[in-house]
Amino acid sequence: MPFAAVTYDIKPGFEAELAEIFGNFRRVKSDKVASETGEEAGRILSTAVFIRDDTLVRVIEYQGDLEAVARHMASQPGVREVEQKLKPYLSRPRETDTVEGFVATFQRSLLRTVAQISVRDLPTGA
């Protein structure tokens, strides 16, 4: 299963406030991600958020098409709520009020995957 990591440029010194925002995150109703035509395009398996100083990173474990995952996230009420609550703490604004803006910001904020290793990649019975 691939992972994606997205960065947020934040003002330092607000770790507790940011932890509270993500701690109160409303989960999505389903892990299934639909394409623009309504067909299943993937799944969001897990997420994690990390923070240090002026950098916040959201890691997403997913299956399927990453752009469809970003589009799905853009339409989720919990994600939209978090994006709104983050605005006062951002050192660099994010244009996430529309699906297109969210997807463009997601792609610009995406970290390059350098390595990814999982026990799930081992052959069965190894």
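Next protein, fold it too.
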Amino acid sequence: MSDEKKHKAEKGKINIELDDTVAEGTYSNLAIINHSVSEFVVDFVNIMPGRPKSKVKSRIILTPQHAKRLLKALGDNIHKFEQAHGEIRDYEKSPVPLNFGPTGQA
């Protein structure tokens, strides 16, 4: 490849870094979504049985255009997943009640 073509090819690439802490990820079993005229806010929470209080683990703020792109990308990925692994069953009622009932005792 000529230097000019190589330069053009490299110019269109985005260098995205992923540090070790972010690469580990954060587990979430609840997403709370709010929006205004200019942004969508998605709060990811991990609620656990017997814990009456939970904290937001991560907050992502998106423009409406990026929220719509995320919806499309997530839909495409779910479709590909189901083609490979079968239908993802949804629950009519959430299996994770928000109150979790009384705390257990040892």
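About the second fold: Residues 47 and 53 are 8 Å apart (CA to CA).
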